[in-house]
Predict the 3D structure of the following.
Amino acid sequence: MFDPHRAGRRRMLASIGGLFAAAIAPPALSLPGNSRTTLPGDRLESLAQLPPAPPALRRALEPLHGKAVLVNFWATWCEPCRTEMPALVSLAESEPGLALVTVAVADRADEVRRFFDEHLVDPVLVSDPEQVVSRAWDVRYLPTTVLLDTTHQPLLRVRGELDWHHDSVRERIRSATKSSRPART
């Protein structure tokens, strides 16, 4: 004889078991060699174009002509931004032909300078207290980083914090900047 209450309990227990299995499954699905494994470098999305750089950013980019540039939008009040800044500086220093420009979004100049002094870093800084630069480039998340090629055309973008020390990230940046260089004649 069919008992609807018993059948309902079985379905509920099966659902709870399914939720439990799903909760523990992702680590097992992320094993090396699995097609669902995502490397940090895969988070760098291709970027075909951006509006022209606003004057403050253009002035910062001018002396860097001929170098690929990471433009990092950040703020001292953004904890992920603070966490990744030393790694970004390290990356720019370790890669010949790569420069770092930081855009301090809606931040106070004294806080920015104090942060750089505390971390003994001195990247090129564009102050963006009114968010002119970040709005022009549609930056809605902090941190956001854009990789520009040697002619300062956009190549890649990542929204959110990234492990800039990871080999997949460094390789993706090297590969993108290498393939974007004009052929020598």
Observations:
- Residues 1-32 form one domain.
- The beta strands are 45-46, 68-74, 98-105, 124-128, 144-148, 154-159.
- The mean pLDDT is 84.
